[in-house]
Specification:
heterodimer, A: about 475 residues, mainly alpha, two-stranded antiparallel ribbon, about 75% helix, globular, B: about 500 residues, about 5% strand
Chain lengths: ~475, ~500
């Protein structure tokens, strides 16, 4: 059996992250202990460089490499770009917090970088093993990151929960994959898809069983009901920068998992997975929005809100049209942007030894720092789906896709839940704008972060005013 | 020269730019300059309304001053704006009202003044956007975007119970308009375009029309507001700052009426026809029952708010009476007057009720109370103010010569062509409206000066005087020369009547 040297060109970004990440470990070991800024700079440069390489593939045709295990298509490029962007921003937001709270900084960046590598592999997977590799590589560093605040009991609890549930989800995912393998004899997605298409309907039972287990794995990673229990606890227990990390980039990667598994590998089981997804979406939107109302802890509130948003995001996949997938892509990208802004603000506002996590911590923010309050206002209204912010267009996209395939009832239901959701978002605005602060002192954050948050907020507003280009980009991924 | 400018885009974006400038000036501590910039910006907008009115072609129903740009090509959504005879007067009303609000804020708003001005500038821009949007989704964007500044205005500058009122306002209106989005997406996919005129051409089954009609009804009825979904309004009005109430009364309610004109009637004509009894009934309940509730109020601002609801009943009555009129008289021409009456009523209510709220705001600023019984005898200490307020009260009553008369008279006259009893019920408002307005006026302005605070009152300043005079002028202009308003809307209303009477089945 001959062995061809695979085409390495499509994996240059991954190789960059891997090699420079390893180098970053050395940098950290030699210089980083004394001067954490060096590791920070090194890691950020790595991400920029990777992003630069990724950007280069934007207009290239789809390439398969490593015997069809790795795919580089438009979707992969787009998602990778936004994963890199969100990790980059996440590190920017976290720098000062980590210093103030005396957390192991170098480790945070390096673990984050490796997790990002996992996300990139996951996004590009075209084979059950690559996918599993990506999932694990994404998750393992994050378990450690959650536990980084060793002395905090909450963090330890969150880490344990996250780890055990994550491990269980991986187990179920693997179980499902094994059934798929048993039924089709293949692990490569296009071969699996072909094999499923050729299976007679009465022999599909084993496939459906496999599908169900795989869906459980997906639901865990997305944090969709009924496998969402870990999410609020982990969000709350993790230090703010880690929550920020979990809430943004990993969601994009989990979305890629949905597309790769359901659309690439099992298009013929569409009827089956649509039904499961519909149930998942309705439950997620409902439970997420209703449970968020009663939260007093803003991290828990945003956790439930993220559950609800995953429900909305799935709606586009349910439509199972190119328009729908594109709308979901748009949704997940913009959602990660909003959530970055919202959690970023939490990180910025946390002072040494004081974790901002109550909604009441935002009291009178408009008086204390109008700019930050305005940014939070943008994020909240955007998440609620009020135009002219980008969250509105994200919802319009998925709803339009639903209406197109005559699922009007689902669209109506989704909108009704959105109104429920609006309540807790505008309550945050109320606290910031309508109430007086407890302490009158204005507080300021460093210029660099104010700038980063400003860019973030303006992106949410700007994309709301001009969503056309991003829509087109997302659509081009499924043409 | 002015005709080459993108007039409508300027009307939308100039205030937005000004709002950003005002905020920056506020940040730099130059508050007074910020106020000047705000006033200047709105003033320029008002001047830009002159060519809008003067160059308006009254012989066509087509959109004029049209600007079309691709916005979201992936969805075929366009930045498409233009005005016809229905939208144009409302744009002018918007800018005019906004100028008054911003002028009135000169002294009365000291708390976070630049934010206040910026909020109202944005609100003005969004409202203009609603009236000029030709693309349905663009319309929806402006429609919803109005909520954010209004929510903030009520919540930040309102009185004691403001948070509750703001949230109630937001959720109520958000709930109302949600289903409209689905309808628009549905129609957009059917017509393969989001342009509103393209929606008129789609044929729809009765079931579809019914569902569409109810979705629109929910959205517009909440905004108008019609009984029984009016309950947000008294709270929002009462708690909002004076400027907020003026905008709510003069503009926010108009977008609901505008929606009936632009969407419900021409898109779902058969459903409108089939359900006209319901709409007429709801309107009459609004006119009579809400009028009676207004009579019982002890809170002056609530009284004005309820009178607003009652007056807006004429707008919906005028809209949906047309089928009955045509049925009785057989002549579509007769329907025109009913719709035109509704339009005039919208404009005149904007002036009249806006003026009442503004006047009340001036009292509130001095006395910090809303209870009618704690006023009394103000005419003794503020004679000029009392005289001006009398004009507004008379317009509210519908005295001939004021703008309030024209709209109500036209609608009641048309009602006689439809059915005597409808006209009878609608005409009851002449009695009820006069009762609550004049009784309120008597208790507030006449009588002995009982409280020391009232005794110490000073009459209006020249700034307040000039703001009020602008409103007096507008009220008399529409009252004595309604043709100035009617002539621009004739053709568009003709066209609307045609569309509304054409079956789509």
């Amino acid at each position: 059996m001959s062995y061809d040297i695979p085409n390495f060109v499509p994996v240059i970004p991954e190789l960059t992250v891997f090699s420079l990440g390893t180098l970053a470990l050395l940098v950290q070991a030699f210089w980083g202990q004394q001067r954490p800024a060096i590791t920070y700079g090194f890691v950020q440069l790595t991400i920029l460089l990777t992003g630069f390489f990724t950007l280069g593939y934007l207009y290239d045709p789809t390439v398969l490499t490593f015997e069809g295990m790795f795919i580089l298509d438009k979707l992969a490029v787009i998602l990778k770009l936004f994963i890199e962007l969100s990790v980059f921003l996440c590190f920017v937001y976290s720098r000062v917090y980590l210093a103030d709270n005396n957390m192991p900084r170098g480790e945070y960046y390096i673990l984050g970088l490796y997790s990002m590598l996992g996300m990139m592999v996951l996004v590009s997977s075209h084979h059950f093993l690559t996918l599993y590799l990506g999932v694990e590589l994404m998750a393992l560093p994050v378990y450690a990151m959650v536990a980084m605040k060793r002395e905090s009991g909450f963090a330890a609890e969150a880490a344990m929960k996250y780890f055990i549930i994550g491990a269980m989800a991986s187990g179920l995912l693997l179980y499902g994959i094994s059934m798929m393998y048993g039924a089709t004899g293949n692990l490569e997605f296009s071969a699996v898809a072909l094999a499923i298409a050729n299976t007679a309907p009465e022999q599909q039972l084993i496939l459906v069983f496999g599908l169900v287990f795989i869906m459980v794995g997906i639901a865990f990673k997305l944090g969709a009901v009924p496998f969402h229990m870990w999410l609020p606890d982990v969000y709350q227990g993790s230090p703010n920068p880690v929550t920020l990390f979990i809430a943004s980039g990993t969601k994009i990667a989990a979305f890629a998992m949905v597309i790769r598994l359901l659309v690439d590998a099992m298009p013929s089981l569409q009827v089956e997975w649509q039904q499961i997804l519909i149930a998942m979406a309705i439950l997620s939107m409902g439970l997420g929005n209703f449970a968020a109302i009663v939260q007093t802890n803003i991290k828990r509130m945003l956790a439930y809100s993220s559950i609800a948003h995953m429900g909305y995001m799935i709606l586009g996949v349910i439509a199972a049209t190119q328009q729908g997938y594109a709308a979901s892509t748009f949704y997940i990208i913009t959602y990660s942007m909003m959530t970055l802004g919202a959690f970023g603000l939490l990180v910025l506002m946390s002072k040494a030894g004081y974790e901002v996590e109550k909604i009441s911590d935002f009291k009178g923010l408009n008086t204390r720092n109008p700019w930050l309050a305005f940014m939070m206002l943008i994020m909240m209204f955007s998440m609620a789906g009020v135009p002219p912010l980008v969250g509105f267009w994200a919802k319009v996209g998925v709803l339009k896709a639903l209406v197109q395939v005559d699922l009007v009832w689902l669209a109506v239901l989704a909108l009704l839940y959105a109104i429920v959701g609006a309540y807790y978002y505008i309550r945050v605005v109320k606290v910031m704008y309508f109430e007086e602060p407890d302490s009158a002192d204005s507080f300021s954050v460093s210029g660099e972060m104010q700038f980063a948050l400003g860019v973030n907020g303006m992106a949410v507003l700007g994309l709301g005013l001009f969503p056309g280009a991003l829509f087109q980009l997302c659509q081009s991924a499924f043409m | 020269m002015l005709t080459n400018l993108p007039l409508l885009s300027l009307q939308i974006w100039l205030p937005v730019v000004a709002a950003i400038a005002v905020l920056l000036l506020g940040k730099l501590g130059m508050e007074t300059l910020g106020r000047v910039v705000a006033i200047a910006a709105v003033f320029v907008c008002l001047i830009l309304c002159i060519p809008l009115y003067a160059d308006f072609d009254t012989t066509t129903y087509a959109y004029q001053f049209r600007e079309t740009l691709d916005w979201i090509p992936a969805f075929k959504i366009k930045y498409d704006i233009g005005v016809d005879g229905i939208g144009m007067p409302l744009v002018i009303l918007t800018v005019f009202t906004s100028l008054i609000v911003i002028l009135a804020a000169w002294k009365s708003i000291q708390h976070k003044a630049t934010q206040y001005l910026a909020t109202f500038l944005i609100l003005q821009a969004m409202t203009v956007g609603v009236f000029v949007a030709v693309d349905a989704l663009l319309f929806y964007v402006f429609w919803e975007a109005m909520l954010i500044p209004m929510y903030l205005a009520i919540g930040i500058w309102g009185s004691k119970n403001r948070s509750y009122a703001a949230i109630k306002f937001f959720l109520y209106t958000f709930l109302g308009s949600a289903l409209m989005l689905i309808v628009m997406l549905y129609l957009g996919l059917k017509a393969d375009s989001f342009s509103i005129p393209d929606f008129y051409g789609i044929s729809l089954t009765m079931t579809e029309q019914m569902l569409i009609f109810f979705a629109f009804l929910l959205a517009f009825a909440v905004k108008v507001p019609m009984w029984p979904v009016h309950t947000w309004l008294p709270d929002a009005h009462t708690e909002a700052p004076a400027g907020g109430s003026v905008i709510l009364a003069a503009l926010m309610l108009k977008v609901g009426g505008y929606g009936f004109f632009r969407f419900s009637l021409p898109i779902a004509p058969d459903a409108s026809h089939a359900l006209d009894w319901l709409m007429i009934a709801l309107s009459l309940v609004g006119i009579v029952y809400i009028g009676l509730i207004a009579l019982a109020q002890t809170d002056m601002k609530r009284l004005i708010a309820y009178s607003s609801v009652a007056h807006m009943g004429f707008v919906t009555l005028g809209c949906f009476m047309i089928y009955m009129i045509v049925h009785t008289s057989g002549n579509p021409r007769d329907a025109n007057m009913s719709l035109e009456g509704a339009m005039v009523q919208m404009i005149s209510h904007g002036f009249g009720s806006g003026a009442l709220f503004l006047g009340f705001g001036m009292l509130y600023e001095r006395l910090h109370t809303r209870e009618i019984q704690s006023f009394g005898g103000i005419a003794n200490t503020m004679p000029v103010f009392a005289a001006l307020f009398m004009v507004f009260a008379m317009s509210n009553v519908g005295l001939p010569g004021t703008s309030g008369f024209v709209g109500e008279f036209m609608v009641i006259l048309s009602a006689f062509k439809a059915n005597f009893w409808i006209a009878f019920a609608a005409a009851l408002t002449l009695i009820i409206g006069a009762s609550y307005t004049l009784w309120m006026y008597k208790r507030v302005f006449y009588g002995e000066v009982t409280s020391e605070k009232v005794a110490a009152l000073k009459d209006v300043s020249w700034l307040e005087w000039s703001v009020l005079m602008m409103l007096v002028f507008a009220i008399f202009l529409v009252g004595f020369y309604p043709e100035s308003l009617l002539r621009v809307m004739h053709t568009s209303i003709d066209h609307l009547v045609q569309l509304s009477l054409q079956t789509k089945l």
